[in-house]
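User: Hey, quick favor. My workstation is busy. Could you predict this chain's structure for me?
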Amino acid sequence: MTLMSHPESSARPYHHGDLRSALLSAAERTLRQKGAATLSLRELARELGVSHAAPGRHFKDKQALLDALALNGFQRMAQAMDAADDPDLPLEPRLTALARAYLGFTVDNPALLELMYARKHDPDIPQGLAAAIARTKEPFFRIITDAQERGEIVPGDPEHIVLLAGASLHGVASFTATGHLPPETALTGVGELVHHLLHGLRPR
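Assistant: No problem, here it is.
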């Protein structure tokens, strides 16, 4: 006699601490393929083979899920830039490597990037997400302050300089995400962008 397996028994079991990661992975996949408007905790539960109430133990509502996706995105962006920053490099190649890491992340994750920055200026942003956003500025801040200490760029408020440099890079990222600039052009042109940016910051 052959025993037939039931769908309930063949579904992947999610133990404590595993479902949250699975929900985030499935949500990011849906975000990439269909956009944020289609995300639903109930649909994610169905996709993962758990009860419709199970996601509520990790995310109280859809906004909490979106915030977690944005937080994860900013954390990964910061990690990518930290890995790219080499303090032993001269200023221009060091900043170019950092800019390329930033643009590489944005090119690979356009839908996630849109979600991340849509939440960035919300007055009700959770404290943890606000801290993660601030964390992404730190590698640029390090480079600018190091360069100022060596007299390689003009003095002034490093926060302001980082804001201007970040705006330039984010503009390229936005053009790429909306299809106005091919990703290959953005990534190959980042060195020229950094060169012109630094030329304007040289002491005179």
